[in-house]
């Protein structure tokens, strides 16, 4: 009996259950010959031999994701040799990949591979031939893999540069650039500005994540910004090392006018760089500012005044107060969602007032909840909310007594927190920017 209609299959084995073995996997490959997607999780009894036989029988496989399995380089090389249509490969915590393991090359899938994701691998360097040899790679994600990755990124950058030179010499049309690398995600890696400078040779990049890479600094980000002018999404988790700040972000503002999404975690940005981004990146729609001690009322007021296209705003663990909320009440005309978490200076009353001022605005905040310390990362679910719907939070602003008017709430708010006087503060702040930033942005 064959199951020709089965094209996607997920096999997940818990630690307490008996794992799928080689015989079962081979039987699946024989009976499901139209299988195009396979996900393996915790399949401890599948060996290199079983996976190799599966690969021989699964010529139509396009996507393979394996995690916490025990097979190794032999199995992966077999998949890459026999599955010539493979487009996506995701490998996570593969126990069979260890020091001294044979290198993993692209094999017959060198031209078809579009996405490679490597996560939590002890010997990730064994994947170097695969990453460099995938000719048409569009997305590369390397997360928490041991080894020095500067060399790999240099090889990718040189290959990309040589490819562009060959296209120019052969007088190819513009369609020849369709296979350029467009997305790179680097997280918790041993990578430095050398690697970022190599990435800058991949000029078609639109999506870049630099997450918890303490050896990366403004120098590397400036190099990327100057050459990758098509950048649309930038996520930076500075891990509070204070090595990426205004200098790098000003370069992004100057050279990347197509920026649509910006996430800054643990980055000490000020109104100088945020103002430049708000002024020059007119397409910015999603912004997240998290865990920064330098992002306060002045910076939020700047964003409110200049980010005309901003639709989603997330602020976590920043020293803002009700003054910033009042600025948002009349700024960012396109704003549809705002999330405030662990901003201790923001009161419940300010959130209620903001909701009455902008009735269509979705507001999520936890101002009324006593919470612990702040921890944010672009890798966990918290920051990715910038691009998707915000999940439910502990406390959400709700309607109170309908008889209470907007004006009375505003009066109460100002009398309690001194927001009336803050109007002069905000106005003075804008005048100060107009004097300081006119000369500052004149260089952009």
Give a written overview of the molecule.
There is one protein chain. With 444 residues, this protein is of the alpha/beta class. 35% of the residues lie in helices and 16% in strands. It has a 14-stranded parallel beta sheet, with helices on one face. α1 links the parallel β1 and β2. α1 packs parallel to α2. The protein starts with 7 loop residues before the first strand and ends with a helix. The relative contact order is 0.06. About 16% of the residues have low confidence.
Give the strand order of the largest sheet, numbering strands 1, 2, ... along the chain. Answer: 1-2-3-4-5-6-7-8-9-10-11-12-13-14
Class computed from helices, strands and strand pairing: alpha/beta
DSSP E strands, number = 14
Largest sheet: 14 strands, parallel
Strand content bin:
15-25%
Secondary-structure element order, N to C: EHEHEHEEHEHEHEHEHEHEHEHEHEHH
Helix share bin: 25-40%
Low-confidence stretches: 167-178, 370-410, 416-434
Average residue-wise pLDDT = 84
Alpha carbon gap, first and last residue: 67 Å
Tally of contiguous helical segments = 14
Described by the principal axes of the CA atoms, the overall outline is elongated
**What is the CA-atom radius of gyration, in angstroms?**
25 Å
């Amino acid at each position: 009996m064959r199951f020709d209609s089965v094209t996607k299959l997920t096999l997940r084995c818990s630690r307490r259950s008996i794992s799928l073995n080689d015989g079962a996997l081979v039987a699946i490959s024989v009976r499901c010959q139209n299988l195009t997607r396979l996900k393996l999780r915790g399949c401890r009894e599948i060996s290199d031999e079983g996976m190799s036989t599966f690969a021989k029988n699964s010529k139509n496989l396009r996507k393979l994701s394996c995690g916490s399995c025990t097979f190794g380089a032999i199995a992966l090389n077999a998949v890459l040799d026999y599955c010539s249509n493979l487009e996506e490969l995701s490998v996570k915590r593969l126990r069979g990949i260890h020091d001294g393991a044979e290198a993993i090359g692209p094999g017959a899938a060198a031209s078809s591979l579009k996405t490679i994701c490597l996560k939590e691998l002890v010997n990730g360097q064994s994947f170097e031939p695969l990453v460099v040899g995938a000719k048409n790679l569009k997305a590369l994600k390397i997360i928490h893999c041991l080894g020095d990755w500067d060399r790999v990124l240099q090889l990718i950058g040189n290959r990309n540069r040589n490819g562009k030179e060959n296209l120019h010499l052969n007088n190819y049309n513009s369609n020849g650039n369709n296979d350029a690398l467009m997305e790179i995600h680097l997280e918790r890696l041993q990578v430095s500005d050398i690697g970022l400078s190599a990435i800058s040779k991949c000029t078609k990049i639109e999506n870049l994540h630099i997450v918890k890479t303490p050896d990366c600094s403004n120098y590397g980000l400036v190099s990327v910004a100057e050459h990758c002018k098509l950048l649309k999404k930038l996520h930076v988790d500075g891990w509070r090392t204070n090595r990426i700040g205004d200098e790098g972000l000003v370069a992004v503002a100057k050279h990347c006018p197509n920026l649509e999404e910006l996430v800054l975690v643990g980055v000490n940005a000020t109104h100088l760089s945020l103002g430049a981004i708000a002024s020059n990146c007119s397409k910015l729609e999603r912004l997240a500012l998290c865990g920064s001690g330098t992002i306060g009322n002045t910076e939020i007021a700047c964003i409110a005044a200049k980010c005309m296209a901003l639709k989603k705003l997330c602020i976590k663990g920043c020293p803002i107060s009700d003054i910033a909320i009042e600025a948002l009440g009349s700024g960012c005309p396109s704003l549809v969602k705002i999330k405030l978490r662990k901003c201790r200076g923001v009161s419940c009353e300010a959130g209620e007032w903001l909701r009455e001022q902008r009735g269509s605005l979705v507001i999520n905040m936890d101002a009324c909840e006593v919470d612990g310390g702040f921890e944010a990362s672009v890798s966990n679910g918290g920051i990715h909310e910038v691009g998707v719907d915000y999940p439910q939070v502990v406390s959400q602003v709700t309607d109170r007594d309908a008889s209470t008017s907007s004006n009375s709430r505003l009066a109460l708010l100002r009398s309690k927190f001194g927001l009336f006087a803050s109007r002069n503060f905000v106005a003075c702040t804008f005048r100060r920017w107009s004097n300081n930033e006119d000369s500052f942005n004149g260089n952009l």
